[in-house]
Amino acid sequence: MIRRWGVARKLRASGGSAVILGLFAACAVLAPVIAPFDPTHISVTDRLSPPALSGPNVMGTDHLGRDIASRMLHGARISIGVGAAVVVLSCAIGVMLGLLGGYLGRAGDALMRVVDGMLAFPELILALALIAALGSSIKNVIIALTFVFVPRVARSIHANVLSMRSREFVMAAVAMGCSRFQIAVRHLLPQALGLISVQATFIFAHAVISEASLTFLGVGLPPGSASWGAILSDGRDHLLDAPWITTIPGLAILILVLCLNILGDNLRDGFDPRAGNPRLGRARRPK
Amino acid sequence: MRAYLFRRLFGTLLTLFIVVTLVFVITNVIPGSPAALILGEDRTLEQVRDLDRELGLDRPLPLRFAVWLAGVLTGDLGTSYFSGAKVSEVILQRLEPTLILTATSAILAVGLGVSLGVLAALFRGGAFDIGARITALTAAAMPNFWLGLLLILLLSLYWRLLPAAGYVSFFENPGDAWRYIILPSITLGASHAGIVSRVARANLLEEFGADYLRTARAKGLSPWSVVTRHALRNSLVSTLGVVGVTLALLIGGSVVTETVFAVPGIGRLLVESVLRRDFPMIQGTILVIALLVALVNFLVDGAYALIDPRIRYD
Fold first, then answer.
1. ipTM rounded to 2 decimals
2. Which residue of B has its CA nearest to A214?
3. Can you spell out the DSSP letters for B42-64?
4. Which of A238, B26, B216, B314 could form a Cys-Cys staple with A242, CB 3.0–4.6 A?
C-alpha cells in the first residue's frame, strides 16, 4: 500500500513531463489533420524562408521549400511511432527471455551469458551491423533497435526473477503445485511490472535518440522521409544560412527525451522508495 | 587477486567470442547474398553467382566462420570488398583519431562529471545543486550530433574560434591538433559528464548517511577532512563502475561524433562501410571496437579489485 502511494506521489511530481509527452503524442496522432501543408510538398520559390509567426510557415521552410512545421508534425508520427514500437517489442521479448533465463536452469544460464555479451557492447554499433545486413527502412530500424534493447530488459527481469524466486509467496505457489509457467506468469510477472515500466521509459528515450542518430548517419530511414533525424540531417548543409532547420527538430528530441527521463526517474524512485532519498539510506549493491 | 583477474579475463574472452560470433552471424545470415546487395537492382543471377564465388560466399557458413576466425587469430581480417585493401591495415591507419577522441572525451566527462557531482552533493539543495542537476539532465537528454552541430554553428561559423571539421594528428602537428579535438570532445563527452555527475552526487550523498562518517565527525575531524579523506574516497569507488560503462559508450558514441566533425577514425570507417555494404570491413571494425570495449571493461574491473579488497576476496 505504501509503495502505491509513493508511485502516485511521484507521478504527480512528474505531471509536467506527462502533459508534454501527451502533447507530443497528440501531435503524432493528429498530424494529418492539423499539419498546415503536405510534408513532402516542394516549393522551390519559398526555400529557406525563416520562421515567422505571422507567415504561412510558422517554423520556416527547408532547402526544398517544404514546410518545417508540417514535417515536424508528421515526423512526430515516425519518431514517436518507432520509439513506441521498439518499447513494446523489446519489453515483450525481453520479459520472455528474462523469465526463461530464470527458469531454464543450465540453458537459461547460457542464454543470460549471451545477453551479457550483448549488453557489454555499445548499442549503436550493434544496430549499425544489423542495418548493414537488413537494409535501410522503418521496419528494419525497428528490428535493429529492438534487438539492441532486448538484452537490457531481459537482464533486469532476470535479476528480479532470481531475487523473487526464494520469496515465500513463490515457495507457497510451488508447494500448492503451480507449474513453472503459472509461477512465472501469474506470480513473478506482476511483481516485475513496476520495473518494466521504468525500463520502458528509458528505452523509449534511447530509441528516439538512436533512430535519429541512425537516420542522421544516413543508414536509418530512407532519404526524403520526414522523421526528426531526417529533418536535422537535411539542415546540416544549411547550418549558417538556415539554422532553424537543425534547431527545431533538435529541440523537439531534447524535450521529448528530457520528459521521458524525468518520468523514468520519478517512476523508479516511486517503486523503490529508498532510491533517490539519501535520508532513508540506499541498499548497498551486493557485489 | 590473481585468481580474480584470471576469472575476469576468461569472462572477457567469452564475451568477446559471443559478440564476434553474433556479428558474423548477423552480417552473413541475411535475406539475399551480399553480392546481390553490392551489385544493386540491375543484376543478373549469373553475376551474383560469379561474385559469390569470387568473394568465397558460396562455401557453407560454418566453414566461412572457421576461416574468418582463423584469420582473426593470425591478425588477418580479410580484404575490403570496396577497395581491395587489407582490412587490418585500413583499421590501423584510422585507429589514432578514435583513441585520442575517446581519451579526451573521457577525461572531460569524468573530470567535469565528478567535480560537478561532488560540488552538488556538498551544497545539496542550494542554487548550485539545482543548477548542476538541470544541466546534467539536459546534457544527458541531448542528442550529441545536434550538440555538435550547435557548437559548429556558434564557435566555428559565427565566432570563427575553432575549426568546424577535420583532424590533425597530435604526432605530426601538436600545436594545431588540440584546436581540432576540442569541439568533438565536448560533443562526445557532454552527455556522459551529465550521467557521471548524477552518479557521483548520489554516491557521495549515500556515504553521508553511513555510520563510519558519524564516527569520523564525532571524533572531531574537520568537515573538510571528513569529506575528502573518508566520504569522497569511498564514494569514488562506486563511481568507478559508471566510469567503465561511460568509456565503453564513448567508444560507441564516437561513430556519430566522427561523422559530424569528419574525423577520419574507425567510427566513421564503420559508417562508410555500412553505406557501401563492405562486410569484411564492417566485421573487422566491429571486432576492433569490441576488443577496445572488452579491454576497457577488463582494466576497470582490475582497478576495482585493486582499490576495493571486498571484490577480490568474494
1. 0.86
2. B256
3. S--HHHHHHHHHHHTTTS-HHHH
4. A238
| A283 CB within 8 Å of a chain B CB | no
Q: Is B168 on the interface with A (CB under 8 A)?
A: no
Gap between the Cα atoms of A100 and A84, Å rounded: 24
Mutate which of A125, A227, A234, A244 to disrupt the B interface (most B C-beta within 10 Å)? A125
Q: For residues B32 and B246, what is the distance between their CA atoms, to the nearest angstrom? A: 37
3-state secondary structure (DSSP) of residue B264: coil
Mean pLDDT of all residues in B123-131: 89
Report in angstroms the alpha-carbon separations of A183 from A69, A155, A179, A187, B98: 50, 19, 6, 5, 49
The pTM of the full predicted model, rounded to 2 decimals, is: 0.87
Q: Give dist(CA B10, CA A281) in Å, integer.
A: 36
Interface test with A, best of B12, B135, B145, B247 (most A CBs within 10 A): B145
Torsion of CA A28, A31, A32, A33, to 10 degrees: 120
Provide the grid cell at A271. 517503486
Task: Compute the distance between CA of residue B64 and CA of residue B49 in angstroms, rounded to an integer.
Answer: 17
Q: In angstroms, rounded to a whole number, what is the distance separating the alpha carbons of residues B278 and B301?
A: 35
The Cα B263–Cα A234 span in angstroms is 20
Low-confidence ranges of chain A (pLDDT < 50): 1, 276-287
B18–A113 CB contact, under 8 Å: yes
Cβ-Cβ contacts under 8 Å for A164 (sequence gap 6 or more) = A170, A187, A188, A191
Closest to A78 (Cα-Cα) out of A18, A121, A138: A138
Contact between A232 and B146 using a beta-carbon 8 Å cutoff: yes
Cell of residue A205, nine digits: 528515450
pLDDT tens readout for residues A40-76: 888 888 788 888 877 788 888 888 888 888 999 999 9
Contact A75, A110 (CB under 8 A): no
Best to test chain A binding among B124, B146, B192, B205 (most A CBs inside 10 Å): B146
Chain A CA closest to residue B211:
A281
Q: What whole-number distance in Å separates Cα of residue A170 and Cα of residue B49?
A: 58
In chain A, beta strands by DSSP E: none
